[in-house]
Amino acid sequence: MGRFSRRREEAKPGYEDNAALRGFGGYEPADAPMLPAPELPRAQPRRIRPAPRRRRTSRLPWIGFVLVALVIGVLNAFGVGRTHRSPAPATRGPVVSTSLPRVTVPAVVAGWQSVAGSEGEYAYDVPPNWTPQPGTLHGWEKTAAVPGISLITSAFLDSGFCQGQPSSKHGGAGVTTVRVADPDAAARQAVSDLGVSRYSPDNGPVAAVTVEPGEDASVTSGSATLHARVVVASVVPSETGPCVPKRALVAALAFTGAGKQESGALVVYADQDVPGAATRDDLLKILHSYRFVPASQRSTTTPPPTTYR
Predict the structure, then answer these.
(1) Local confidence band at 266 (pLDDT 50, 70, 90 cut-offs)
(2) Residue 210: count of CB within 10 angstroms of its CB
(3) CB half-sphere exposure, 185, CA atoms < 13 A
(4) Which of 83, 93, 149, 272 is the most buried (most CB within 10 A)?
(5) Per-residue pLDDT tens for 14-72?
(6) CA within 13 Å, CB half, 116
(7) Phi/psi zone of residue 33: left (φ > 0), alpha (ψ -120 to 50 degrees), beta?
(8) 3-class DSSP state of 287
(9) d(CA 115, CA 118)
(10) Dist. CA 78–CA 286, nearest whole Å
(11) Phi-psi region of 164 (alpha: psi -120 to 50; beta: other; left: phi over 0)
(12) pTM passes above 0.85
């Protein structure tokens, strides 16, 4: 269900579980809330360990299940769809599973593809060279040096680009909750938390994150319009290496429901100065594509069975 990486996923891949995406193991993270009261997962992510040092397994320990349960409880209170996850069985032989039905929605950006929550209540779009993985939870664990962050309804760019690091990525996106009511402050916290958590080593020193002034935006839900803010930050990683970029961009769109003390946020990040890098314009277009989706625009598909080894 989830993927937690300590720092960059290319050089430092961590916890990831795509079972929910494939319909095996059952659990898919709950999705973003519908208006008028947007709320997102409150669970704090487990700390991600780098592949060269220590790699997480594809199953959460008992405390991870407690955190996930908290996420589900928060989202279900607002009518958000969910499924349930059980740990993958320990087996060396192939396992054939029947995939669960998924709700899909049309993209609003021409030539792009949508990334929708499991019930299709909300979605955002990504370029055709990205890989939507809406059933995957990923993030970076909190330590004494970094704040950590967790993202649901994920999408990734250039999976496995770094040789020997199958969990490596040149970019990614996902939805989270920030416990700040002001959208501008929430967007700033989201880009700072992700920039530091992804591009810093476990125990510091932390990456340099330069946050730019925010811009107004909006999120639509039927005839309603929710005020939002978009913030972009540039990041200089605190490490060097063949799989570590010299710089990166992180951007977030945050919005808050009336009377709420938390903000929902879509966060997107991308390594720069690498082949096929997502541009600043790409990141902004991804953020501005975030919307709530009416039931009339949702359809259900069932992927073919998948064999695991």
Answers:
(1) very high
(2) 12
(3) 8
(4) 149
(5) 334 333 322 222 223 334 333 333 444 444 444 434 444 333 333 334 344 444 444 44
(6) 25
(7) beta
(8) helix
(9) 9
(10) 25
(11) left
(12) no
CA distance 48 to 42: 18
- In terms of Cβ atoms closer than 10 Å to its own Cβ (0-12, 13-18, 19+), residue 170 is buried
Say which DSSP state 39 is in.
-
- What's the rounded Cα separation, in Å, for the pair 43 and 23? 23
Q: How far is 86 from 110, CA to CA, in rounded Å?
A: 37
Task: For residues 66-80, give the mean pLDDT.
Answer: 41
CA pair distance 105, 171, nearest whole angstrom: 23
Please tell me the distance from the alpha carbon of residue 175 to that of residue 137, in angstroms, as a whole number: 9
Instruction: Return mean pLDDT, the chain.
Output: 75
Indicate if the pLDDT at residue 281 is higher than 80.
yes
What residues pair up with 176 in beta bridges, in sequence order? 265
pLDDT at 10: 36
> What is the set of domains in the chain, with CATH numbers?
2-87+99-308 (3.40.1000.10)
- Which H/E stretch holds residue 133? strand 130-133
* Each residue's pLDDT tens digit, 164-221: 888 789 999 999 999 999 999 999 999 999 999 999 998 899 999 999 999 999 998 7
∠ CA 109-115-119, rounded to 5° = 125
The DSSP string of 92-107 is: SS-EEEPPPPEEE---
Cβ count near 254 (within 10 Å): 32
Q: What is the pLDDT of residue 123?
A: 97
Helices (H), the chain: 19-22, 62-76, 183-198, 280-288
* Spatial distance between the Cα atoms of 196 and 299, rounded to a whole number of angstroms: 38
Answer whether 56's CB lies under 8 Å from 31's CB. Answer: no
| Calpha distance 157→127 (Å, rounded) | 9
DSSP-assigned beta bridge partners for residue 15: 4
Q: Say how many CA atoms lie within 13 Å of 174 toward its Cβ.
A: 31
Higher pLDDT, 92 or 226: 226
